[in-house]
Amino acid sequence: MYGGSTPALLEGGSTPALLEGGSIPALLEGGSTPALLEEGSIPALLEGGSIPALLEGGSIPALLEGGSIPALLEGGSIPALLEGGSIPALLEGGSTPALLEGGSIPALLEGGSTPALLEGGSIPALLEGGSTPALLEGGSTPALLEGGSIPALLEGSSIPALQEKTSCSSVPGAYLAGGRSWRGVRDGGREEEVQTAAAVARRE
């Protein structure tokens, strides 16, 4: 940081000296970091004069044709904010294309499309097992957590059963696949061998 090398901190001697314009060459021709941000160059801060002026639409070219950040978010361009006019209008389904065919964010979440919200009709219907495919074969989220599948919840049969057999906050999935036992810590820190429900059932 103080000029040991790279070569001699890109010829500026130290980081403070470099930021004051020592080099890279002469801090991209702007003299110092403050001077650079106030317009020194890169070239002339992408033609906008300064960071505030740039954000007010000085250029890149003319802030992607929208004049300023507020104007851009109101639909100035990129092109015409992905054809939806403004962020609120876009979220109401103006386009991209027609907000992935669902009309609006609320309509989309109710199953308008993408395609037909992954075939489940709506978020509630999807979580109840409408599809993706049939909520990974478990029928519904509650049924899935009770061991419906993925396959048979990594063979631990259910989240409660899995936690009951392990009494641990988490169990590596590689150990659960196949129902192998895992040395874990439970009961206030005592280490002992715990097993998945599948391993217990297989042994019995």
Automatic annotation (TrEMBL):
It comes from the Eukaryota. Residues 184-193 have a biased composition (Basic and acidic residues). Residues 184-204 are annotated as: Disordered. One of its GO terms (molecular function) is translation elongation factor activity. This is Transcription elongation factor SPT5-like 5. Keywords: Elongation factor, Protein biosynthesis.
